[in-house]
Amino acid sequence: MVRIRRGTVVGIVATALPLVVAALVAKGLFPGAGERLVTLFLINVVAVLGIGVYSGNSGIISFGNVGFMAVGAYASGLLTINPVVQKTALPHLPEWLMGWGMSFLPALLVALVVVVLVAVAIGVPVARLGGSSASICTLGFLVIVHVVLVASSDFTRGSQTFFGIPRAVNLWVALPFAVLAVAIARAYRDSAAGLKLRASREDEIASTAVGVDVRLHRFLAWVLGALLSGAAGVLFAHFIGAFSPKDFYFNMTFMLLAMLILGGITTVSGAVVGAAIIMVIVELLRKLEGGVDLGFLALPTVFGLTDIGIGLAILLVMYRLQDGILGVREIDEQVPFLKRLSAGAAKPHERQPVQVPPAGTGTLRVENLGRRFSGLVALERADFEIRPGLVTGLIGPNGAGKSTLINSVSGVVPPSTGRVMIDGVDVASLPVHRVPVSGLARTFQNIRLFRNLTVLENVTVAASAIAGDRDPADIAREALAEVGLGEVAGQLAGTLSYGAQRRLEIARALALKPRYLLLDEPAAGMNPAETQELMAVLDRIRTRHRLGLLVVEHDLKLIMRLCDIVVVLNKGQQIAMDTPAEIQADPAVIEAYIGRRRAAAAPANAAPRPGLDPQAAGKPA
Ligand code: ADP
Ligand code: MG
Question: Which of 205, 369, 372, 373 for a ligand 1 pocket mutation test, highest count of atoms within 8 Å of Cβ?
Fold first, then answer.
């Protein structure tokens, strides 16, 4: 089921309303030139959002979307061109393409089908890539489209102008497209799919660990973005009526990216603001470019003044505001009045009881698990169980292989040998984003949050992996309440204190409703107060959810207090597995882990250091 939140609607209205106003003002006050300018602006909005849907949400800059504009423009051009003009302009056109003379809307639809087919074909390889490799691929696509257009002169007149296209687009045609583009882009951004892609933009590994199929969502956004770009290309073609391949190349790509980046690449409102500002700059500078006589001063012709102006504007803005003018949040998430509108009438907060999954059954079996890193044996023959309702401690010196074990069990780093069995399924053989859905969640040693998403969004990403017919945001709120972060749900995750960030990671894992939860050094770097808070949270989770917990921890006091069973690793080998009391007495453990440090740290009569000394740290006898 698709849920449209109130905030999404407010956002769409707040972003689209200025477009309507601009159109009305242009029509009323500046018919003619002003009207044309605003029409072009509206088409640019569609084009910028085409890039924004993919690039803004995935974090991968696309240079390729103008290629889709070109495909759309030429496809609809071929279908709508006046048959009489066509005979002279394109004499070598194959028969099946001749004489269609379609009208604008049907041609638009056919052109969009062509665009989507091309996008799907290109999207399969592009979605496998991330970061700059994907960007380079999109650039390659742009170049290929250009070369093909120039080379296919029977269809396109090559590098010559393609003309005779009915000018079907005016202000009133462009306006609904721009409004629709805003609505589509914003609804996608706020949807579960958009949220998942944004999470992968913030941290790809962490997103897969909460069930995001990064490749799938990159692909979907790529195709949706291509659709908008294609529509922009069709609009553009029918607005100017004549064009050539170079109109859809680097200049336009640069200008559209400038609009997107200037306003703020991650938001829809940013794209609109950026488009408006760049259009104004270009218009002003174009007037100056040809030289101006101010009466007292004659400015000379400056070649390329508009491009220089765009470049300078970007430099200036980026210097002060790295995330663009609007930053990483939509306008309606920043303006207090709109924020109140989005929240709606404060409904009495009905506290739902926390839904506790049924007591766990079965176990997670780590069988003979091993991992090598080109020669280095990081982990070998780890073999133990994680049982529901019990806390298993995992200890060992630095470099013992604890994180490698958690990474292998959770599929982030596939094991070289062995199996991880849940309910008779080897989860190590699943694609990594499927592991969380099968009941296994984790946190990371180095906090991996989606920093530019809100606290609530961080957890909602995870909840939407398992939500079923419940609203993921509700599940997320429950998880946040459990770790004591309910009050800060609307803040950006990156702004939380360190201890709160650690707890947020736990809430995000809990929202997957896991049966097994692996925590990699949850208390690392915490001060004593934060550690206390964390302990309370862990105690609560353990009694309330009866999930199987695996906790990696250096603080032995914490381990001894919390754990039912302790597994000890040393140099990748599992050297012991026993109750905390037995572990403290195990000579091999003392030798490997504690003994040397104690011997080095403490003279015979000195007070033992708490946290390192198992005697000092032990439970009361
Ligand atoms: P721990 O978490 O117990 O401190 P780790 O599991 O992080 O230990 O590391 C175990 C060993 O594996 C270390 O020697 C470490 O350098 C090595 N290692 C871990 N991850 C990688 C990796 N991605 N590539 C190469 N070596 C690694
Ligand atoms: Mg580690």
Answer: 373
3-state SS class at 576 = strand
Work out which ligand 1 atom sits closest to the CA atom of 400.
3
Give the residue extent of every domain in the chain: 8-341, 386-605
Residue (of 19, 333, 8) closest to 187 by Cα position: 8
Task: For residue 386, give the DSSP letter.
Answer: E
- Closest Cα partner for 203 from 19, 447, 421? 447
- Give the integer Cα–Cα distance in Å for 545 and 543: 6
Q: Which protein residues have their CB within 5 A of the ion that is ligand 2? A: 402-403, 445
Q: What distance in Å separates the CA atoms of residue 380 and residue 382, rounded to the nearest whole number?
A: 6
pLDDT tens string 470-507: 899 999 999 999 999 999 999 999 999 999 999 999 99
Which tokens hold the place of 91? Answer: 């004499």
**Residue 378: DSSP 8-state:** E
Q: Which of 266-270, 375-379, 608-612 has the lowest mean pLDDT?
A: 608-612
Distant-in-sequence, close-in-space partners of 487: CB < 8 Å, separation ≥ 6: none
The answer to whether residues 570 and 396 touch, using CB atoms and an 8 Å cutoff, is: yes
**In testing the pocket of ligand 1, which one of 205, 374, 376, 554 has its CB within 8 Å of the most ligand atoms?**
376
* Residue ID of nearest Cα to ligand 1 atom 7: 403
Taking the CA of residue 398 as reference, the ligand 1 atom at the shortest distance is: 4
- What is the pTM (predicted TM-score) of this model? 0.91
Task: Inform me whether the pLDDT recorded for 589 exceeds 90.
Answer: no
> What is the fold of 8-341?
ABC transporter involved in vitamin B12 uptake, BtuC (1.10.3470)
Residues in a beta bridge with 417: 370
- Is residue 58 within 8 A of residue 201, CB to CB? The reply is yes
Question: Contact, 175 vs 98, CB < 8 A?
Answer: no
User: For ligand 1, which residues put their CB under 6 angstroms from it?
Assistant: 373, 376, 378, 396, 398-404
Residue nearest to atom 26 of ligand 1 (CA): 373
Angstrom distance (rounded) from CA 20 to CA 42: 10
Distance CA 494, CA 569 (A): 33
User: pLDDT for 332-381, tens place per residue?
Assistant: 999 999 999 988 755 545 555 555 555 556 789 999 999 999 989 999 99
- Of the listed ligands, the closest to the CA of 399 is 1
What's domain 386-605's architecture?
Answer: 3-Layer(aba) Sandwich (3.40)
The CA distance from 227 to 116, in Å, is: 6
For the chain, what is the radius of gyration of the CA atoms?
30
